[in-house]
Structures are given as C-alpha cells and as structure tokens.
Amino acid sequence: MAREVNAANLRVSAAPSPTAQQRVDRALYRAQQYAIATPIALVRRALRMVTREPAPDPDAVAALQTRYADLLARDLANVEAGLYPRALLFQIPFGSYARALPSFALDVPRVIRRVVARNFRDLPADVDVARYPGYFRRNFHWQTDGYLSRRSAELYDVAVELLFGGTNDVMRRQVIPPISRHLAGTGAYDARLLDVACGTGRTLAQIALAHPRLRLTGLDLSPYYLQVARRVLADVTDVSLVADNAERVPFRSNHFDVVTSVYLFHELPRATRRTVLGEMHRVLRPGGLVVIADSAQLAESGALAFFLGRFAADFHEPFYRDYVEDDLAVALAEAGFRVESVEPQFVAKVVVARKVARSPVPISRGRATARPRARRTKR
Ligand SMILES: C[S@@+](CC[C@H](N)C(=O)[O-])C[C@H]1O[C@@H](n2cnc3c(N)ncnc32)[C@H](O)[C@@H]1O
After folding, report:
1. Phi/psi class of residue 146: alpha, beta or left (left: φ > 0; alpha: ψ in -120 to 50)?
2. Same domain, 199 and 221
3. Structural domain range at position 150
4. Does position 77 have pLDDT exceeding 50, yes or no?
5. Quick one: 253 and 287 in the same domain?
6. 130 with 212, same domain?
7. How far apart are CA 262 and CA 198, in angstroms?
8. For the chain, how many helices (H) and strands (E)?
9. Which of 156, 168, 220, 225 to mutate to test ligand 1, by most ligand atoms within 8 A of the CB atom?
10. Nearest CA-CA partner of 111 in 133, 143, 152, 80
C-alpha cells in the first residue's frame, strides 16, 4: 500500500542531494520512458518519409523536446517531494498492452479505410445511439466503434500510450499533486472525489494508489469504457462507477470535496464545455478543489501551435480547433471558480481552481468580464 501523503512529508525546502534509491529510480525511469519513446519516434519519422509529409517546424520540435524532458523531471520531482508514490513511475501495464497489440494491429486497416472514406459515423449497429448526445455519436480519433463498444475500450489505452510516446499516464497523474496539497491542508484523506469522464479508470487508479482512503466516484457516458474501468479498478476498495452524462451529473449539489477531469473538454462543443463546468461547480462543495488536465491550448502553449494544428487535422476531433482557443482558465472563472494555477505539462496542461462561496466574477451586461488571476507559466 502506498505511503499516505501528509503535511509533514510535503515540506520540502532546499533540495537535498539524491539518495542512492532516488539515483537508481531516476536512471530506471528515464530508461523506461526513452525505451518507449525512441522506437515510436523512429516509426513516425519513417512514416513521414513514406507519405512525403513535410517535416515539422524545428522551433516547435525543440519546444516539444524541452517539454518532454520537463515532464519526466517533474514526474520524478513529484515522487521525491512525496506528492505521489514511486510505484506510479513504474506502473505501465506492459503485459496487458502487449496482449492488446495484435488486436490493435488488426484494427489499423479498418481505421485507415474510415479515414480514407472520411466516415466518422461508423458506429456499432446494435447500440441505440439515440441515447447519446449528437456530438458524441462519432468515431473520435477515427477509432473503431467510437466510444461505443468494449472492443474500443480494450484498445484505447494502448493506442493513446503509443500516440503520446508513453507519457499519457504521466500527464494524467499530474492532477495528483494539487490533490495531495489540498488533502494535506484539510487533513480529510477520506474526502469524496469525482472524476468526470473517467474512461477506463486509469486516472482514478493512480489517484487511489496515492490516496487509498479517498471515496472515489467515476462518471462516464460510455458504459463500455466503464466495463474496462471495473477491471482496472478491481483492487480499489472504495470506488463507484456511474454511466451517465456530465451535462446532468446525477449527484446532489455540494456533494464532492474534489472534482477532476482528464482529456474531456477538447472533445466537447463550446456550449457543452460550459454546461459541464457548471455541473462540476454545482456538485463541488464551497472551498472544494477542481483539477482539470487536458490538451495544451494556445493561451499558454503558443510554441506548440504547429502540433496543435496537426492534431486537429490528422485525427477526427471536430471541436479541437475551437478548444485550443477557448482558454480553460477563463472558462473556469466564468463558471464561478477561482483559478489558482495553470501549468503546461508536455502536450497537456493542468488547471487548478477552487469553488468559492460567491462567484468572484463581476457580471456586466450579462457577460463575465474578469480574467482569472492565475499563476501562469509560459514555456
Ligand atoms: C478522451 S477520453 C478520456 C477518458 C479518460 N479521462 C482518460 O484519461 O483516458 C474522453 C471520455 O469522455 C467521455 N465523455 C464524453 N462526453 C461525455 C459526457 N457528456 N459525459 C460523460 N462522459 C463523457 C467519453 O466516453 C470518453 O470516455
């Protein structure tokens, strides 16, 4: 069981020289990450040559490389500061991903056919799609069955780890440090946490390892992704999974102490983003913490504009172009949160905010006018 993060082990002053264990961990962890990222980068380069795709903008590549190295350094530093356990550094389920690879490879021709035909309405015939909102009834990322089958859910995590060169779980767990600090401040380690759009449960699993006494709830629109989440979270004692729509969260107001969400907002139309933020605000208690990790945006990551544009062009992500211009920090402030920090994390960002008793946003002529006063780190 992971060491519980508490106020005492969060007090880190001048960086002490690393212990022998920390030196070993740093070397093993970097070896693991580069062993995943290097072959993926080589395959991508070969594919670019075959398809004669133009080389990426060198400044954007340099920015990406710096941010990759920063993410790994941050992950190690978080462990060394006691913000989450070292076990998280080495939790990639290589065995289950290796077992999924043959199915993933067999699926690639189906994805290519869909891309060539620009067919993003290729959903399973046996699913009643009328149950789901219009924006959701599509093959996001051109993936087979969209989010509407167990087969899709079984391939999702290995696919995104390949896409992000082994950093997907690393970016997901960057929601944990603000939670650790919040719990250390309140002392309420058995707080209620809701993860909105929890998917296959990999964020909740990592949060549970860091904070085993939390009472966890995962909500997702896809019952099929929750089937996989049940397996991923099989060892977690206190977790409930609910198949429902984040536009109408089925919990009473002020119920949760912490609300998280990972990689949801870039897949929502702008109006739905606002509705979901309103629901997150409603179910969070005053003083409670919201932590959102999602794709980088132009507001803090202009240096990645080339790659953000490519992602919108290459994957079926119809709301992404609007998302990158719709600063999450501003949207959170408009929803009544007080934004505390915005931090770039490789190709993602983490926004931390708090629900205040009364909205800090002055409303003038029906529009929110205040910009969030957040600590913002440009890289
Ligand atoms: C890109 S995936 C991210 C999943 C997960 N958070 C992760 O880190 O892998 C987006 C998820 O949002 C869910 N989703 C989309 N719209 C939703 C809504 N209105 N309510 C609840 N879940 C939704 C999808 O079913 C899918 O699991």
Report:
1. left
2. yes
3. 94-163
4. yes
5. yes
6. no
7. 7
8. 14, 10
9. 220
10. 143
Cα(152) to centroid of ligand 1, in Å?
13
Ligand 1 contact via 147 beta carbon (within 6 Å) = yes
Model confidence at 6: pLDDT above 80:
no
Phi-psi region of 118 (alpha: psi -120 to 50; beta: other; left: phi over 0): left
Torsion of CA 44, 206, 95, 198, to 10 degrees: -70
For 265-269, what is the mean pLDDT? 97
Query: What's the structural domain count of the chain?
Result: 2
Element at 75 (helix H, strand E): helix 58-80
Closest CA to 294 of 315, 333, 270, 320: 320
> Does ligand 1 lie within 6 Å of residue 198's CB atom?
yes
User: Is the CB–ligand 1 distance for residue 205 below 6 Å?
Assistant: no
Mutate to test the pocket of ligand 1, among 170, 207, 221, 279 (most ligand atoms within 8 A of CB): 221
Question: Is residue 237 domain-shared with residue 328, that is, in the same domain?
Answer: yes
Task: Supply the pLDDT for residue 361.
Answer: 52
Residue 373 falls inside a structural domain: no
CA atoms within 13 A on the CB side of 47: 6
Nearest atom of ligand 1 to the alpha carbon of 168: 8
For 133, the token pair is: 């909102």
Q: Is the CB of 264 under 6 A from ligand 1?
A: yes
Report, as an integer, the average pLDDT of 313-330.
Answer: 91
Q: How far is CA 337 from the centre of its chain?
A: 20
Q: Report the distance separating Cα 94 and Cα 242, nearest Å.
A: 28
For residue 158, the Cα-to-chain-centroid distance in whole angstroms is: 15
Mean pLDDT of the chain: 89
Q: How confident is the model at residue 75 (pLDDT cuts 50, 70, 90)?
A: very high
For 54-58, 239-243, 268-272, 324-328, which range has the lowest pLDDT when averaged over its residues? 54-58
> Residue 364 pLDDT more than 60?
no
Q: Residue holding tokens 């740093």?
A: 26
Q: Is residue 59 part of a domain?
A: no
Measuring from atom 13 of ligand 1, which residue has the nearest CA? 197
